[in-house]
Every structure is written in structure tokens, then in C-alpha cells.
Write a structure and sequence with these properties.
The protein has 379 residues and is mainly alpha-helical. The chain folds into 2 domains: 144 residues, no CATH class; 199 residues, Rossmann fold, CATH 3.40.50. The chain is 47% helix and 8% strand. The strands form 3 sheets. It has a 3-stranded parallel sheet. A two-stranded parallel ribbon has the order 4-5. Strands 6-7 form a two-stranded antiparallel ribbon. α6 packs across α17 and α14 packs antiparallel against α15.
Length: 379
């Protein structure tokens, strides 16, 4: 075991500033050992944010409707980030946002409360409830074939707003942060804030759209409507620009939380969330805990690592404290939701474990007494 651990640790490394791991898809490091997320943190200190705000104002002015009709769409969950974006668009920039939620398949009570509080804070909002059996089948295939347990729901969360915006004549969609740029990934959008459907499929759906959705022959075509993006011809008739707020303003998740708490009724969990030490984000659905556990099995980093790295980059935590927290929390098996997962995916415990085992990186883990244990130690 000790020899295996040394070998595994020698195959991976962590950012020398935060705890981003070399196994993260599309990550890169400079000669200091800083990951591209930390390089971006550094670069943001010298960016001309005033010039970017002018870009934002020009973008909004192109879409602004003086007649009060909806002029921008904001996907929200009731959480901190979408709430923050909607609040600023409405109250700082005078836009008329239509907020949209694709209801997650296993919602949590706190998420329902936060979404209701957000709506009651004064926002126009629609909920999209995709066909239950369709999203369940797509999520199950995502789990088995991609190691991506809410792939169907995430597909709808990307595709349905674009489809609805095109149908309603809303030419602008605003998401929160660009996770690739902010957290270590491709930098394709760090100089160009507008992206398209092809980028969404390639990056956010990890190239699995054709494999999972396009081959879903056993799901009625009508039930796949909210999982399908508009065609190029439809978007030519009703163009939709898609962008992230984090391009135009220095992104700070904790600031977003404080604004959403004060102005949108956001409530945090009573204790820390499953698999991490924080309690104020991703409180809307039970499948997120499984998503981050599979992320851990595939790449060696989980939810606590993500949260700790963000806290380091925003200057709220030192690296030594982050290492201790990651060692304590990362890799938590979500027993709390196991019976829920088995019922939802219609799997036996053996089938469920086999699905997880299929995606465990055996260069990084070995199975001991029925659970995958790391062959590395975070340093």
C-alpha cells in the first residue's frame, strides 16, 4: 500500500498556490506550478474592469426593451449565483429579466424554499419540468456511460433556455461564472464573452450529447424537446447570444452569497453540505453529492477540494488550512442519499456499485472493504 501510494502521488501533483489537481480536464500549469485558475486570479488584478463594464453596457443596450418586454433570460436555481446575476441585471442595469429553472430530478427542501424566496423577491420566473421518465433514463445512461449522474438534467439546463429564448424572441442569456476560466480549464472565452451551442456541447456536456441524447431511441421525440438545442436554421431566424457574468465583473462567490441572502431571501444549510465544509451553495438537489463523488473517483478531487481552492484564490484561506479540510472531507461516499439513488435509477446496490466502479481511476484508487480508497495524499 505504501509503495502504491508513493507511485500514485508521483503521477499527480497539485497547484502550488491552490489545490487544483493535475488530473483536472483541460488544466495547465506555469513554471511556478500555478494552475490556470490561479493564473487567472492573478490576471484579474490587472484587468481593466471599467472597460469590461462598458462592454457589458453595450451588450445590454443592444438587447434592452423599452416597452417592458423581457430582454434577457437568466437561468436560476434559487442559489447565490443566478440570484446575484438577476439582481444586478434588474436593479443596477434596468433590464427586464425572465428567470428560468429546469427543475432538478431530486430536489431538496432547502432548494425549493430558496427558489420560492427568490421569486417572491420580485422576479418573473418560469419552471420547466421536463418529462420525468425521459430525464431519468438520460440520467441513468449518463451515470453508466459517462460517469455523469445528472447528464440528462444538465443537458436540459443548457438546451431548454436556448430553446425558450429563441421561441420568445429573447436574444440574450446570462449565466453566472465561466467555470472553465474561473476554476481551471479551457481559456477560449477569457477574451470573448459570447459563446455558442457548439461550445456548450463540447465543454459543458463533455462531448456526450450525441452519445446520450441523439441515440435515445426509446424516448418519444416529444419528450426530448427540452433536451434538444434549436437548429442552426432556428437560431439564424432568432439569434441568441449566450454569455457569463464573470467576464464582466470580478467573480466572487461569497459576495454573491451575501447579496442573494440580503436581497433574494437565500438561506444556507444548517450544517455543512455533503462532502464539504461549506453550507451556502449547491443546496438544490440530491444528485450533486453523487456528481462530486464520481468526480472524485475519476480525477482524485471532490467537492471540498473545489471549495477550498476557491477560498484560497479569494484570499479567505491559506493553503495549509485547505489541505487539512480536503483531507478531512474529500471522497465522502454519499450514504445519506443511497436509498434515494437506488430508487431513482432503478438499480440494485450491486448495479449501482458496478456503475461507480466503472469510473474509478485505478491509478489513483484501490478498493478496500467495498469502498474506493485513495493511493495518494493531498500535499
Amino acid at each position: 500500500m505504501k509503495t502504491n501510494m508513493i507511485a500514485a502521488t508521483n503521477r499527480v501533483h497539485w497547484c502550488s498556490n491552490c489545490l487544483a489537481m493535475s488530473t483536472r480536464p483541460r488544466i495547465g500549469f506555469d513554471d511556478r506550478g500555478w494552475c490556470n485558475a490561479c493564473q487567472w486570479m492573478e490576471k484579474k488584478k490587472t484587468l481593466d474592469w471599467g472597460a469590461r463594464e462598458k462592454e457589458l453596457e453595450a451588450l445590454l443596450d443592444r438587447h434592452r426593451r423599452d416597452d417592458g418586454e423581457f430582454d434577457v433570460m437568466v437561468p436560476v436555481s434559487g442559489g447565490k449565483d443566478g440570484s446575484y446575476v438577476a439582481y444586478n441585471l434588474k436593479h443596477k442595469y434596468g433590464m427586464h429579466p425572465l428567470c428560468v429553472t429546469v427543475t432538478p430530478p431530486l430536489p431538496l427542501p432547502l432548494g425549493d424554499t430558496n427558489l420560492r424566496n427568490f421569486v417572491e423577491a420580485g422576479y418573473n420566473h418560469i419552471s420547466i419540468n421536463v418529462a420525468h421518465e425521459a430525464v431519468r433514463k438520460l440520467n441513468r445512461r449518463g451515470l453508466v456511460d459517462l460517469g455523469f449522474p445528472y447528464f440528462g438534467w444538465l443537458t436540459a439546463m443548457q438546451a431548454a433556455p436556448v430553446r425558450m429564448a429563441a421561441r420568445l424572441g429573447i436574444g440574450l442569456i446570462f449565466y453566472g461564472e465561466d467555470g472553465e476560466v474561473e476554476y481551471g480549464g479551457t481559456t477560449e472565452t477569457d477574451k470573448n464573452p459570447i459563446y455558442d451551442v457548439a461550445y456548450m456541447k463540447k465543454v459543458y456536456l463533455e462531448g456526450g450529447y450525441e452519445k446520450i441524447v441523439e441515440r435515445a431511441q426509446d424516448i418519444p421525440a416529444a419528450d426530448l424537446n427540452f433536451f434538444r438545442f434549436p437548429t442552426d436554421e432556428e437560431l439564424a431566424r432568432c439569434p441568441v447570444e449566450i454569455t457569463h457574468w464573470s467576464y464582466f465583473e470580478n467573480w466572487d462567490p461569497y459576495r454573491n452569497y451575501l447579496v442573494a441572502k440580503e436581497h433574494c431571501g437565500l438561506q444556507e444549510a444548517d450544517g455543512s453540505n455533503v462532502g464539504t465544509f461549506t453550507n451556502f451553495s449547491q443546496n438544490d438537489q440530491a444528485l450533486y453529492a453523487l456528481h462530486t463523488y464520481l468526480m472524485y473517483l475519476k480525477f482524485g478531487f471532490g467537492r471540498a477540494n473545489q471549495d477550498a481552492s476557491i477560498e484560497i484564490r479569494r484570499g479567505a484561506m491559506d493553503r495549509a488550512q485547505a489541505v487539512n479540510l480536503v483531507r478531512l472531507y474529500d471522497g465522502h461516499y454519499p450514504d445519506e442519499f443511497l436509498s434515494t439513488y437506488l430508487e431513482y435509477y432503478e438499480m440494485t446496490p450491486e448495479e449501482f456499485d458496478a456503475a461507480l466502479d466503472r469510473w474509478a481511476n485505478q491509478d489513483l484508487f484501490e478498493k478496500v472493504d467495498g469502498r474506493w480508497q485513495p493511493l495518494f495524499r493531498v500535499t
